[in-house]
Amino acid sequence: MGDFRGFIHGLTSSARQILHNELLFTVENGLVPAIPWQAIYDDPTETAHGWNFLKDTRTPWPVDGEQWLIGRVRQHGSPVRQRFIESSAGRLPYFREKLAIAIHVSGGQPARAPELLSIRHCNTDSGGRRNVFIEDGLVVFVSQYHKGFYASNDTKVIHRYLPREVGELVVYYLWLVLPFTRRLEAYVAKVRRLDGVEEIKSKIRQAYLWGPDPGTGRDWSSDRLREVLKRETTIGLNGQAIHLNAYRDIAIGISRRFIRPSSAAHLSHVAGMIYSRGITEQPGFVSTDDGGAESALGLAQFSPWQKEAEIGRTERRWQL
User: Fold this and answer.
1) Greatest CA span in the chain, whole angstroms?
2) What is the pLDDT of residues 57-74, one digit of tens each?
3) 3-17, 64-78, 119-133, 262-276: which has the minimum mean pLDDT?
């Protein structure tokens, strides 16, 4: 277990070093602005297109993330700017690969590859609500995908909270790095003169946390995530490569060995009532395992996700 802890710490430290030294330009310019963890606000009920926690006006961000890195690069001459742009384009995919594995191994029970790779950091018109939120100073990924969804049509809302060290990497990436890379991608698209269809596809993919790599356009897939996990575990575990299925079994074993079941644990619908999560969560983001509470009129009040699932089941019955 000590070796595995060392692997996670080494992975996080390596990703942080790439972020600060090669993506945020700290070697020449010093420290980066601090994240106001205790003052970050988020409104999970906001559904505006392109909205995420960075756009909440209540948060006192110390710098404008849209302009900070661009201004830092402009302070230097053309050779330095060119070197930084080339380094950023080359090292960003490597950083995102390390970040994906750090999230995969530190965010609780590991998600399946399609679930992790479909995470959106902002709202979209086509995909709907985002999957990245801030809650009590922690970054949380909220997903509704699971392997049996298309067979059962039952939604399982899953919250995965990241440790502060990993959440810091996510916030810095979305706050300071991503706006700069989007500028580069827009410039490349202008040079290549993409047609309207390609431009729309590019904008849709920008909402994904694991969108195509800038410059090369390489997409993320289950095979890529599998290879990255094997590479990082080989480096961090003295040559012992672990693939996705093996780590899923390892995570279950770790939880059984080191995480004792608590008698104070609640079912999801009970926890939602006790901790009042339903007040600030989006509709349907608090699971109701009992099928809905009985109202004063004697009618069950179902969440929107349950209603959609019921409609889907009805449509399938009509098709049969």
Assistant:
1) 72
2) 999 999 999 998 888 877
3) 262-276
Nearest by Cα to 124 from 213, 52, 199, 220 = 52
Q: Please state, in angstroms and rounded to a whole number, the distance separating the CA atoms of residues 15 and 35.
A: 17
131's tokens: 């999957």
Residues sharing a CB contact under 8 Å with residue 245, sequence separation 6 or more, in sequence order: none
Phi, psi of 61 (to 5 degrees): -65, 135
As a whole number of angstroms, the distance between CA 178 and CA 214 comes to 11
HSE-up of residue 132 (Cα within 13 Å, Cβ side): 29
Tokens, residue 138: 């922690």
Tokens (6 digits) for 66: 């849209």
User: Residue 113 CA to chain centroid, in angstroms?
Assistant: 12
According to DSSP H, which parts of the chain are helical? 2-18, 26-29, 68-74, 78-106, 113-117, 149-152, 164-172, 178-192, 196-206, 222-236, 244-258, 268-274, 277-280, 304-319
- Tell me how far apart the alpha carbons of residues 29 and 23 are, in angstroms, rounded to a whole number: 12
Positive or negative, the CA dihedral 138, 14, 101, 213 is positive
Query: Taking a C-beta distance cutoff of 8 angstroms, is the pair 51, 150 a contact?
Result: no
Domain positions in the chain are 2-130+163-258, 268-319
User: What are the helix (H) ranges across 36-177?
Assistant: 68-74, 78-106, 113-117, 149-152, 164-172
Tokens (6 digits) for 255:
């939880």
pLDDT tens track for 138-169 = 999 998 765 666 666 667 788 899 999 999 99
CB atoms within 10 A of CB 108: 14
Q: How far is CA 51 from CA 8, 115, 179, in A?
A: 31, 21, 14
pTM: 0.77
